[in-house]
Structure prediction request, 181 residues.
Amino acid sequence: GLVLFLLGIESGILPMGEAIGSELPKRRSLLLIVAIAFLIGFAATIAEPDVLVLSGQIDRVSGGSISDNILVYVIGIGIAFFVALAILRIVFGFRMAYLLTGSYLIVIVLSFFTPAEFVPVAFDAGGVTTGPMTVPIILSLGIGFSSVLSGRSAISDGFGLIGLASVGPIIAVMLMGIILF
Prediction:
């Protein structure tokens, strides 16, 4: 099963992500590029089996107080926002170190205000988004996007894409904990 799954990723998902990523800059609309990156990040996340398993377990453990559907959507929005941010980083050439530092500073500050039971859920949410569906899609999108930009390196621009995108669910779940509880 795993061999067929990996074959499907290599022959279907990776080329599709690279094709979409390489077509985006040709549209010359930053808003369209960001919107499509957001939608792809969201769709890949809500289809991620690990996210669905985590949200189901959290729903059961919390006795239904944290709905599995809401958690999946919050995680999806967190990833989607940071995938769009990663694409903007590629366009404008921001340094990854600054974005990661700022993002994790936000995580640290939010951890003081987030209810204690949400902090481990938030970090688990960041971890499960690096599963077999989300990673190939986000990586291939970023590599395809940066490969057609002149003077850009697909390798260096693609570096850290998943690390940056994985911060999104952590922040989103922490904010959910602060707002809802």
